[in-house]
Predict the structure.
Amino acid sequence: MADTPTFVRDRLAAIEAAGLLRQPPTIEATGPVTGRVGGRDATLFCGNDYLALRTDPRIAQAAADAAEAHGGGAGSSRLIAGSLAVHEELEAEIADWLGTAAALVFPSGYQANLAMLQALAGPDDQIVSDALNHASLIDGCRLSRATVAVVPHKDRRAAERALSDGAFAERFLVGEGLYSMDGDRGKVKDWMWAVHNTGAHLLVDEAHALGVLGPAGAGVAAERGAGHLPLARVGTFGKALGAAGAAIATDAATRDLLVNAGRTYIFTTGLAPAAAGAALAGIRIARSAEGDERRARLAGHARRIWNGLLDAGWQVPGDEDTPIKPAIVGPPEEAMALHHRLLEAGLYAMAIRPPTVPEGTCRIRITLSAAHSDDDIDRLLGAMGSPDTVPRP
Ligand SMILES: Cc1ncc(COP(=O)(O)O)c(C=O)c1O
């Protein structure tokens, strides 16, 4: 094998010198919110399994049934021979859930966001993108070759100004239903006005909101009574629904355009049948009365930790009732030191550093699950202490 080139070592060394080197930890799950991390038993506060469906036996059974019926993989891209009955059943279920005429399934949310922006926007168009949008939306903007204006987070006036500036064939405003690093809802109604006043189209990524917020878990646009207004909404199956994959919910003609122009739909193998079967089972639970009970438990946990962190003096961005709770620490070394202190106490919550979040806003990002207990949350609050007790390396 060839020697590693010098530039690879140099670049890695630069990342390490900045305190930003990352490695994926191996986690052996021992329960919905417990696992062994680096040989140590821990309660996990860092997954996106908000409704605690990922380890539910009904989801595993649905995955096994779909694999048995349709095989281990789709076998080809959807447009060749990989469009299976289970994909179509899943698309019908999502369209019904979100109240759209159609939906299109993708192997991942990352690919769905790329396709949404690349297939709908082109070099003659403009995309106005919220400053805190996820990397997949940023990459979708790049792939579209549209003119991109990044506007301050949830600033309606800035969005409207940007959308009114210049001559473009089409204009798009893109934001998230629930922001993944700050835990706050996107201002869907403000965005609706901005697109209404400027003739633009609204695109919303509901990755963290689907299953979690809104009536029957249908997301933030639905919660705001505006589910019918975005041109397209992305929902992912790998978070609250306990599976993998994603879909774009939209009208029938826009779905057809995505099928014909979406590069990450056309040039990739269709979603694995097991993932599609698991997603279907996850959606059916999420939409049911049981889903409502899980959402209520989750919102209760969110309020408990929100109040506890604020009382201890932490700066906690976001909305009170959402399951993403960032406690701002500041420098990366201090965020890592607090992460290690938590781990020693048997609590696993991620330290998030640039480039995922802006410089100076490193944080412990706590995410909650309906499977956590009040006692789990109180133990975490105890171990977080206050900002004054953060270890200074
Ligand atoms: C806001 C947001 N959109 C999209 C994605 C991508 O979804 P997936 O994990 O299914 O690729 C993620 C995270 O993974 C996300 O946080």
